[in-house]
Amino acid sequence: MGNLFTICGKEFRQMFSGPLAYVVMTAFLMLTGFFFYDLFSNYSQILGYAGMYQNPAMMQQVNVNDMILTPLFHNINIILLMIIPFLTMRLYSEEKRQGTDELLLTSPLGMSQIVIGKLLAAVLFYALLLLLTFHFPAILFKYARPDLGKLAAGYLGLFLMGCSFLAFGLFTSTVTSSQPIAAASSFGMLLIFWILGWVSESTAGTIGDLLRYIAMTEHFEKFGEGVVRTGDLVYFASFIALFTFLATRSVESTRWR
Fold first, then answer.
1. Domains of the chain, residue spans
2. How far is 119 from 72, CA to CA, in rounded Å?
3. How far is it, in rounded angstroms, from Cα 34 to Cα 21?
4. Which residues contact 121 (CB under 8 A, 6 or more apart)?
5. Residue 181: which H helix or E strand, with range?
6. CB count, 10 Å around CB of 138?
7. Model pTM?
C-alpha cells in the first residue's frame, strides 16, 4: 500500500508541475460557471415574472431541482467528456515518451500498483474539480430549497462517470507514447459510449436493450434525477474495474517486448 500511495502522491504533484492542470481547472470552472449562471438567471427571471406568485399551477412547475440541478449535472457531464481526455493523455504515455517507463517496469513495484497509483492521482485531481463547484449548491441553498438527496445523487453520478472516463483514458494512455493520440482515442471512444444511448432509441429488440445497457448516459441519467439504482452502481464499478485491468495488462505486455 505504501508504494501505491507513493506513486499516487508523485503523480499528483507532477500534474501541477506544468500548465496542463491549471488550464483544465480554469476551463472547467469557466464552463461550469457559465452554465450555472445561465440556468440560475433563467430560474430567477421566471420567478420574477409578473403574476407568478398568484398562479399556483405555474409555481408548481418552477422547481429549482428540475430547472437548475438536473440540467447542470448533465452539462457538467458533457464538459467532463471534453476535458478528461486531456487530463489522462499524459498519465502513462509521458512515461513512454521520456523513457522513464523502463525504470518503472524494472522496479520492484507491481504493475497493478503503478496503474492504480496513477489512476488514484487522477481521481484525486478530479475530486478537487468537483469540490470547486460546491459553491453552486451553496448559492442555491441561500436563495432556494434544493433537494439535498438529489444533490448528493447527482454528485455521486458525476464522480462515478468521471472515474469511468479516467479509467478509460488511462487505458488509452498505456497503448501509445503520443499524448495527442491518447487524448483523441479516449475522446472518440468515450463519445461512442455516450451516443449509444441515442442509437438504442431507434433500435428494437435484444440489440436495442444491449446498446441501452452499454450506453453510459443511460446509467447516469437517473443520478441526475436524484435516483440511485444498484444496477447503475454495478455498471460504473464494472466499467472502472475492466479498464483498470486492461490498462494493467497493457503495461505488463510492454515488459516482455
1. 2-255
2. 26
3. 20
4. 7, 8, 9, 10, 11, 12, 15, 91
5. helix 179-201
6. 9
7. 0.88
- Do residues 86 and 183 lie in contact, with contact meaning Cβ atoms separated by under 8 Å? yes
Tell me which amino acid residue 116 is. Answer: I
Tens of pLDDT, residue by residue, the chain (257 residues): 667 788 888 888 888 888 888 999 999 999 999 999 999 888 877 776 545 545 545 444 567 788 888 899 999 999 999 999 988 888 777 666 666 666 566 666 677 888 888 899 999 999 999 999 999 989 888 877 888 888 999 999 999 999 999 999 999 988 887 888 888 989 998 888 888 877 777 777 788 778 788 888 888 888 888 888 999 999 999 999 999 999 988 887 766 55
Q: State whether residue 190 is helix, strand or coil.
A: helix
End-to-end CA distance of the chain: 28
